[in-house]
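re: ur question from yesterday

yeah so i grabbed the chain u mentioned. its 180 aa long if i counted rite. heres the sequnce exactly as i have it in my notes:
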Amino acid sequence: MSLSPYEITGSRRVLETRFVDVREDQIRQAGVEGVHYCVELPRAAVVVPVLDDGAIVMVRQWRHCVGKVLLEVPAGRAMPGEPIEEAVARELEEETGYRAARLEPLGEFFPLAGISDHVGYIFAATGLIPGPARPEALENLETVRVPAARLIEMLTAGVIEDGFAQVALLRWFLHSRAIR
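ran it thru and got these structure tokens back, copy pasting raw so excuse formatting
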């Protein structure tokens, strides 16, 4: 079987909302026809805020869909047309209160490539300046400071369950060479 793109023989929107759209594509590959649903989500701005002592600023946040509190890095959606660096800075300040003197790109990833076009852009934030957090109305979160060595232990033990946090922290540790 070929790894070439599917032939799309038809497409229609089956759901349109402010935050997510779902598209139904009629597809054909090597004479076989089928249906594939694509969840269209805004770009994600993901940030690893690094304090001067090397500790990482994390957020504990209630996540309704999984019914529990998760330890995460600050992250959120980029608005249409918003430069990703601006979205990263905005999310950092909204969720933690910190502003960054420097933002450094650490890469991008597709967290749901089998069902979605969703892409996350990861940045490290340094030179942090504290200030008041301004979470959105339904964001139920608290900021925590975690030493980098403790985060490695938590990742290894499976304590950090959020996929964005796992990928972002791995990228940060590889970038900073904290994992030896």
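noticed a couple things. The chain has two domains: 7-40, 44-176. also The first strand starts at residue 7 and ends at 16.
anyway ttyl
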